[in-house]
Structure formats: structure tokens, C-alpha cells
Design goal:
The protein is built from one helix and ten strands; from the N terminus they run ββββββββββα. It is mostly beta strands and 167 residues long. The strands form two sheets. It has a five-stranded antiparallel β-sheet, with no helix packed on it. Strands 2-3-10-5-8 form a five-stranded antiparallel β-sheet.
Length: 167
């Protein structure tokens, strides 16, 4: 079996490692065990991580939860998990609520620097937390999703890191 790679070096933010996501201009970003929290300082809050990827098909996914607002959470222009190329949205999984996994697939024709983004709430002072992340080639993602245990039962993996990946 070939190696399956998660290109996010620290898919459990807040655990030992590099803080890969930084705040967009209208947010603050904080790290805690297993998640990165995006707090709105104005509307259009987000965290971002830029990475250069070769041409091909890609999958970007993260789980969102831990909303700190007092009402139902909304994001600016219904953004959720999204990829920006050259200042324009390239792929998007619209925001439809908390306590769920967002997954999007995108294609690049050539080697490209992309900005991976995690939306924050539209209301100033509120926050959302994202964790359990993966960025993988579509091929690696499909192989991961098809893995089974010793009894042939699906593992149902949606992401992995070096510590939780079954060997």
C-alpha cells in the first residue's frame, strides 16, 4: 500500500506543532487543544493558510463547532470552508450550521498557490472553532475513505494525523 498524505502538517490545531492558520484582516485566531478558533472583529472574519499545490484534484475538509454566540450562527455571504486563488473564490462549501464536517473538492490546472480558508461568524465578538482537518489529493482521500479494519468493516475515516491513523 502506498503512503496516504495529509498535507496539513498540524491537522489538530493547538497540539504541538506549527500554527498553520493566520487571521484574516477582520478576525483574531487562537489555538486550543485540537482546534483553531476564529473570532470576528468585523464581518467577513476568517482564518487562512496559503499553500502551493501541483496541478490535480484536491480535497479540503474540516469539522466546525464550539460557537460562542447567543443566537444561530451566520457567516458573511454564507461562507464556510473555501479555497481562494488569485483573490477570487475557487471552491466553496457553504456554511449551513455548526457541529458538522465540511468537505470540498477542487481542481487545479497548473501548480498554484491557494489560500485555504475557515470562515468565522458574521457577528463581531462571536467565534467558531475548526479542527480535524485534512488537505489531500483526491486519490489519497478516496483511498483513506475506503480503508477497512481487520474484519473488512469500514473505518469511516474523514481525516487523519500521525497519532490517530490506524496502522
Amino acid at each position: 500500500m502506498s503512503e496516504i498524505r495529509n498535507l496539513l502538517h498540524n491537522p489538530r490545531p493547538g497540539m504541538p506543532g506549527v500554527a498553520e492558520f493566520t487571521a484574516g484582516p477582520y478576525a483574531t485566531v487562537a489555538y486550543s487543544a485540537g482546534r483553531v478558533t476564529v473570532t470576528a472583529t468585523q464581518t467577513f472574519a476568517y482564518a487562512q493558510r496559503d499553500i502551493t499545490l501541483p496541478a490535480g484534484d484536491w480535497v479540503y475538509s474540516a469539522f466546525v463547532g464550539n460557537y460562542t454566540g447567543s443566537d444561530e450562527c451566520t457567516t458573511t455571504q454564507n461562507r464556510g470552508l473555501y479555497v481562494v486563488v488569485g483573490g477570487k473564490a475557487h471552491a466553496n462549501q457553504p456554511f449551513t450550521g455548526i457541529d458538522k464536517r465540511y468537505t470540498l473538492q477542487f481542481h487545479l490546472d497548473t501548480e498554484t498557490t491557494v489560500s485555504l480558508r475557515l470562515a468565522g461568524p458574521a457577528t463581531i465578538g462571536e467565534s467558531l472553532s475548526w479542527g480535524a482537518m485534512i488537505l489531500a489529493s483526491k486519490q489519497d482521500y478516496d483511498v483513506m475513505r475506503s480503508l477497512t479494519d481487520a474484519h473488512g468493516q469500514p473505518l469511516n475515516l474523514t481525516w487523519f494525523d500521525g497519532d490517530t491513523y490506524p496502522r
